[in-house]
Request: fold
Amino acid sequence: MSMSGPGSRKRDRDGAGRPRNARPRDELGRPLAHDAAGVAGVPDDLALPPDESLAEAQRLLDAGRAFHAHEVLEGTWKAAPEDERELWRGLGTH
Reply:
C-alpha cells in the first residue's frame, strides 16, 4: 500500500526517525481521522517501573481499554533490561 497518493499523509516519525502515530484514537484504540477528537492516550515515551506499569495496565483493562493497556506494557518492555524484555513483550501482546 502506497502512502504517496493524493490526500494521503506520510507516516508520523519522531526526531530519531522511528514511526509514531499521531492520529487520534477512540477508547478502544482504533485510529480516527487526523482532524477527529479522540481520547487521551499513552505518551509514546512512557516507561513506568514494573509495579506501576502492571497497576496502570490493569486499571486500563478494567476500564475496557485493552489497546491502551498494551501501550503501557510496550513502553515498559522497550525500557526493560535485555533479559526481561521477552517477559514484558509477552505480557503486552497476549
Observations:
- Residues 23 and 34 are 5 Å apart (CA to CA).
- Residues 50-93 form one domain.
- The chain has a mean pLDDT of 78.
